[in-house]
Design a protein that fits this description.
The chain is of the alpha/beta class. The protein contains eight helices and seven strands, in the order H-H-H-E-H-E-H-E-H-E-H-E-H-E-E. The relative contact order is 0.12.
């Protein structure tokens, strides 16, 4: 596969095409991120979105929608960050946030650390499982995108409900089925889940949703 190269012109064209608005001063940072990410992607599989259309219509739209539900100055752990979405673009769009990233695959975590350094972002990256981090650290919000079904997420994080306030999950239309599966396994007791956002993603028939998950302290 030939190396993808990001350009400011391609980003701006994709933003206009998909009616997406981000502050002008962030444009070049987003291009730099894509350029670095796609270069690394030639060596290690980090993302399937290796053109500006895919980046804007999926990664950036998801990040922008998520950003609307994060209070100013809150602490965020991005769970299973992979290629850095939403954590890295979120750090560019919301410098007020205190963002950390958890990626259990060591070689991916190493790339994320390099990306954060090269992009001059004050983001900490941990080469560890998020549920292990949460055991010893505290956060306002855990953000989770394309990591695991709801039943697994509830199983992992319900042990430490006093170490974070809320999970924010980006999910597709199957989330209702996933939640029913979690309930059938008894994993949804003392859990409150609410759909707080729903939005279209270009090129896909089904909408994406953002779910707020909170745990009752017992």
């Amino acid at each position: 596969m030939p190396l993808s190269v990001a350009s400011l012109e391609d980003l701006q064209a994709a933003l206009q095409r998909h009616h997406v608005s981000v502050p002008d001063h962030v444009h070049q940072s987003l291009v730099d991120y894509c350029d670095l990410l796609w270069e690394w992607n030639e060596q290690i599989n980090l993302t399937r979105h290796t053109d500006m259309d895919a980046f804007v219509s999926r990664d950036l739209i998801d990040t922008l929608q998520l950003s609307k539900h994060l209070a100013e100055g809150c602490s965020v752990l991005d769970v299973g960050s992979g290629g850095g979405v939403p954590g890295i673009p979120l750090a560019m769009l919301r410098p007020d946030l205190k963002i950390e990233m958890a990626e259990s695959v060591a070689k991916k975590a190493k790339v994320l650390k390099t990306l954060a350094r090269d992009l001059k972002l004050p983001v900490k990256v941990f080469a560890d499982r998020a549920e292990k981090l949460v055991k010893s650290r505290s956060y306002d919000v855990l953000t989770i995108r394309a990591v695991a079904p709801i039943r697994k997420l509830l199983f992992w994080f319900r042990q430490y409900p006093d170490h974070f306030h809320q999970l924010l999950l980006i999910k597709g239309p199957r989330w209702v089925t996933e939640f029913e599966e979690a309930k059938a396994e008894g994993l949804a007791n003392h859990v409150h889940i609410e759909k707080i956002d729903e939005y279209a993603t270009p090129g896909h028939d089904n909408n994406s949703v953002i779910l707020s998950v909170t745990f009752e302290l017992t």
